[in-house]
Amino acid sequence: MKLHQETHLVERIGWLRAAVLGANDGIVSTASLIIGVAASGADRQSILVAAMAGLVAGAMSMAAGEYVSVSSQVDTESADIARESAELTANPEFEQQELASIYVSRGVDPETATRVAAQMMAHDALGAHARDELHITATTTARPVLAALASAGMFTAGALLPVLLAALLPIGLVVPGEAAGSILFLALLGALGARAGGAPVGRPVVRVVFWGALAMALTAGIGRLVGTAV
């Protein structure tokens, strides 16, 4: 019998969240930094030095943050699986009843649930409990290295866009040009992220544009205040 092969968008969750977060943060934080420094009256060299420093620091921070946070999730999953393994060894009958009750709660009749639970316990008891009791699967399990690399790489890609604008725009147009270009980049990112996740485009675009514009407006205001005071 030929098996029907399916792919699901949820399989992308391991890297999509980190990638979208990294690119969004790269655009917003770097563009905001550039706008803030430019609004203070700094020259192009100072703007670009600040932008590159922000890019490198941000990429490393994103990688470290993702790795540490996702590793904490891995530790929690591992602890839960170890505990479940010990419970299976100590009291397999109770664990089989628990598995059957899970299937009953999902709509399976008790007799069938009992037979299925017995078969699942005989085949792969720990795997069945990890999947059906703990909701840990190969698709959704945490992957720290993948998350760190995706986040850092996409942060760098996102940050390079406002850096290029700062390098190419006339110095007098850096603030408005940076803001307009970065909002466009954010809108494109929101649309691409929605497409990759199979979601409608409108709401993600509005989300990223709103928060990005707010961050850039605040840093522009602070830059002008600091530049005037100095």
Describe this structure in words.
With 230 residues, the chain is an all-alpha fold. It has one domain. It has seven helices and no strands. Helix 2 packs across helix 3. The termini are far apart. The mean pLDDT is 83.
Any descriptors?
single chain; 230 residues; mainly alpha; 7 helices; 82% helix; 0% strand; elongated
Topology:
Layout: H1 13-39, H2 44-90, H3 92-105, H4 110-132, H5 144-168, H6 174-197, H7 202-229
Helix pairs in contact: 1-2, 1-5, 1-6, 1-7, 2-3, 2-4, 2-5, 3-4, 5-6, 6-7
What's the quick description here?
The protein is mainly alpha-helical and 230 residues long. Helix content is 82%, strand content 0%.
Strand content: under 5%
Q: Which runs of at least 5 residues are low in confidence (pLDDT < 50)?
A: none
Domain count, please report it. Answer: 1
Number of helical runs?
7
Order of helices and strands: HHHHHHH
Largest sheet: none
Helix content: over 70%
Report, as a whole number of angstroms, the end-to-end distance.
Answer: 77 Å
Number of strands: 0
Structural class: mainly alpha
Arithmetic mean of pLDDT: 83
Question: Outline, from the CA principal axes?
Answer: elongated
